[in-house]
Each structure stands twice: as C-alpha cells, then as structure tokens.
Amino acid sequence: MATLHLQDVPEDLYVRLEQLAKSQHRTISAQVISLLESTLPPQTPQSQSETPKSVTEILAEINRRREQLPTDVEWPDSTALIREDRDR
Q1: Percent of the chain scored above 70 by pLDDT?
Q2: CB atoms within 10 A of CB 31
Q3: Phi, psi of 56 (to 5 degrees)
Q4: Which residue stretches of 1-88 are H helix?
Q5: Contact of 6 with 20, CB cutoff 8 Å
Q6: pTM (predicted TM-score)
Q7: How deeply is 20 buried, as exposed, middle or buried, from its count of CB atoms within 10 A (0-12, 13-18, 19+)?
Q8: CA angle (9, 15, 17) in 5-degree steps
Q9: Cα–Cα distance for residue pair 12/27, rounded to 1 Å
Q10: Distance between CA 21 and CA 27 in Å, rounded?
Q11: What confidence tens digit (pLDDT) does each residue in 39-71 have?
Q12: For 25, left (φ over 0), alpha (ψ -120 to 50), or beta?
C-alpha cells in the first residue's frame, strides 16, 4: 500500500479534518482516505488499449479496418517505392 505525506497543510484545514475524523470515529488517515474515495471518480476497468488482445482479435481488427479502406484508390506498389528509396 502506498504512503502519502502532506506538507504545509493550513492549520484551520487540519483542525476541520481532525474534527470530522473524530465525529466519524476515524483516524485522520482513514478520514483522508474516505474523502479521497468519495471525491475521486470510481476506478474504471482497463481500457481496451491496456487489455491484451489475442492474435485472433488483432487479425479481426485488421480485417475490419482493411474493409473500411476506400476501394477506388490505386495504392502504389511498395516494392517499387522501396527500390526507388534505395536507389537514391
């Protein structure tokens, strides 16, 4: 578990935090954690980019994207482009 240290907390804020912690029967640390949990947005599941994909899923995505490419475009021959680049 991570440790969080705060510096330069205004005295009046610390007193209010201490009073709130006492009223909730919590330590100051527990109260800060409770406040952070209630303030921060809930943890979201891993985004699709973080989730490892299987080879089948990757190939299916490639095929979907390939089908979305325009068909009336004449794509240059990659071999010719590579040869042209090497000849420079």
Answers
A1: 92
A2: 19
A3: -60, -45
A4: 11-23, 28-39, 55-68, 78-87
A5: no
A6: 0.48
A7: middle
A8: 80
A9: 17
A10: 6
A11: 988 876 666 566 788 899 999 999 999 888 877
A12: left
Say how far apart CA 17 and CA 26 lie, in whole Å. 11
What b/e readout covers 32-46, taking b as 16+ CB neighbours within 10 angstroms? beeeeeeeeeeeeee
Please name which of 40, 38, 19, 18 lies closest in space to residue 29, comparing C-alpha atoms.
18
Task: Kindly state the tokens that stand for 83.
Answer: 């040869």
In which residue are the tokens 């990757």 written? 58
Please check whether residue 21 is in contact with residue 31, taking contact to mean a CB–CB distance below 8 angstroms: yes
Three-state DSSP class for residue 20: helix
